Amino acid sequence: MRAVLSLLALAVALPACTRVIERPSSAPSVVTTPAISERTIERSPAAGATATTNCTWESQTYSNGATTCQLGAQQRCNNGVWERTSVGC
Prior knowledge:
Number of helices: 1
Oligomer: single chain
Strand content: 25-35%
Distance between the termini: 93 Å
Number of strands: 5
């Protein structure tokens, strides 16, 4: 009889020891708040501003800032003008 009472007491006491206590948190949740967000913003030139000019090399058009190898030297397009960089190719 004592063994049954001991098991009964243990069965009642054991769940109380493993109970999970949850407290509300004021910090934002990692799941709902992304760490990194990527945004793409496209803007047109302001009124009165001139748009950047593309460059051309061997009948190929390159956008402003593009680089290409021309005659053994790297060239960068800067508003429609090829400028030589210090990098050889």
